[in-house]
Design a protein that fits this description.
With 423 residues, the protein is mainly alpha-helical. The chain has one domain. It is built from 23 helices and no strands.
Length: 423
Amino acid sequence: MSPMVLTIIILILAVTSFLLEKIPVNMTVMLSMIALVVLRLVDPKTAVSGFASTTILMLIGVVIVGSALFETGVCDMIAAQVTRFAKTERQMIVAILILASILSAGLSNSGTVAVFIPIIMGICAKTGFSHSKLLMSAFLGAMSGGRLTLVGDAAINVLIGDQIKNLGYPFGFFEISKIGVPLTIVMIIYMYFIGYRFLPDIPMAGGDDALFTSSEPKTAPRWKQITSVAVLLIVFLGMIFEKQTGIPSYFVAIMGAVVDVLLGIFTEKQAYQMVSIKTIILLGGMTPLATALKETGAAQAIADLLIKLIGGSTNVYFITVIIFMLTTVMTQFMSNVVTVTLLMPIVIAVADTIGVVPNALIMVLGIASTMSILSPIACPPANLIYSYGGYKFSDYLKSNILLAAIFMIFCVLVIPFFWPFYA
């Protein structure tokens, strides 16, 4: 059996396992990596090379630096101010969307959602606003923030950024902002005039009240709060001016994390606990499969098959829609990092096949991978609000499917203006 066929079989088995989740996702990742080595599709050194990637180093640093704002209570203070300006439920929905987007642009989207949960429950207990609507708004805002800066959704943005730079094209700190900012504006306008009608309105249960009263905002000495903000701002500046300083972004993030620990924002043990080993395994462990797809010709074969399945069309806009839809569906049931890693070589092969610059298709892939908003199992932030909001599985789809469709249409029309299909 040829290496290409073996690689495709491993890919199909991995995707099936991700969807069924009969075994943990990370075990599927490790089993795939072992199979690739045993079958000599990649060498052992290549198989483990992903665990030393700058993507992982960037993620570790950013998670620790961003979490300092939550640990010191700065995010609690910022979020609490929103209640002073939003008087109606619809105004509150938009206010939470905006604030969650801003916070998530520099911080973990899971952390952003987590800090909003007790605040929203308290607001709703006092005002009578729908907690399920506001929690869904916080979730959508946090996901949107990941598209505003390079560190917003560091794992995805750095992953696609590294790939674009490897292809010989520039990818700066605010590259993702070119499409992220317009998408956020579109989301806010849509939610204010139309989308709020589709948000689930579920009565608050007694358990929710107890949850809120037992949740206490974090507090810390004033100097720690100021320090956490200062470190984050310095890290931001360091990433923006990495060319001028000569210090790579991932190293700036690591430096910021070390400073937070040395200054006592966290203990060393706390810093270790903030770094998810599951995320590291996902990021590093899928690298050999992506390598095998590319080097065995499997990615090119799948790309050719994809084009045949869509009728042999080479219409770049039609193919862009297919890529967006496929990515969106896949990322509802598996990590967006896994989805992007699996599809990246295929998307590049498709671009080569139809003769377009791959940047635009890679950006479509990246944006579509953040459409993890249609099911409660799509991503950690979706999991976080599930029990607090009292949602059903279908509530996510009913609430957000139209927004996902609008995002797709907008991306297909607008992305080529920033990243042209043809050189």
